[in-house]
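Entry 14. Structure prediction run on the chain below.
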Amino acid sequence: MTSSQQALAHSASSAEAAPGIPPGAARGAHGRGTPPGPDSWRSRLYRWDMKASPYAFIAPFFIIFGAFGLVPLLYTAWYSLHNVQLSGLDHQTWAGLDNYKHLLSSEFFWNALENTFSIGVISTVPQLLMAIGIAHLLNYRLRGSTLWRVVMLTPYATSVAAATLVFTLLYSWDGGMVNWLLHFVGVHPINWRESDWGGQFAVSTIVIWRWTGYNALIYLAAMQAIPSDLYESAAIDGAGRWQQFRHVTIPMLRPTILFTVVVSTIGATQLFGEPLLFGGVSGSKGGSAHQYQTLGLYMYDQGWGIGNLGKASAIAWTMFLILLIVAAINLLITRRLRKSHDDQ
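Output returned:
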């Protein structure tokens, strides 16, 4: 046997002596000594790194959320059970559920809740209907479709202060364009800031203008995900565009519609900037007679206007409970729709 054949036989016997270890690794380990076993510090460090690294990657989010989200939320709950004044934060007295009892017996709270509900309905229903119609038009092949989509997002990108200032000028009692247009149809000028339904309608138009395009793009994305085979089958059966929209598009958009309804309801419950800026001097009161004071404005007025932080905290937690109820209703409706779809 030649020397080269002896070397090959020796390397083959070494590889067979250590099954499961690559030949290169075996040769390297032979030169360095015994390889580290499963209980060596390198293997333990590797296992610890594989287990701890995912938690380290997501830790910044939870740290920031805990510092700026969870801790203030719990502190607000603690404040809602005490009598706390803005001018004396160090002097707190236990109140228990008195703040919630006074809140439920306050006519201003029920007025704010009613205004929040009415403004939410006036702004949400037309907004979503218009958004579905605009998305249906944009779903077809139009010239400059990208430009139209950018135009739809322009109101959403506009600041609340700028949009409200423009609408305040439009709804001005003396010299506003809205009253000027109403003059041509025989309607007397309306003092939008001082009237009950007029103020709510004006605030709702600001919300509609800002959020219709945003919801339209959400509906457009959902429409583009609908399989084209459904439209082709409907067209073969003789369905026109309106019938296709009713019997194909709307049923396929039910989950998206529920999502936008919930998000719009949450936004209506937290409505603050539009009525505050529209009211001007009496913005925190929601008008001179609280005619469009929402729950957000009522909380702001109690906390920063009057300085009763305990009652303001109770209002904040009441709003949180309302949102939980809305989320629970959405969950029940979603499950029922999913069950009915599975039964079909």
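The longest strand covers residues 88-94.
Filed with the rest of this week's runs.
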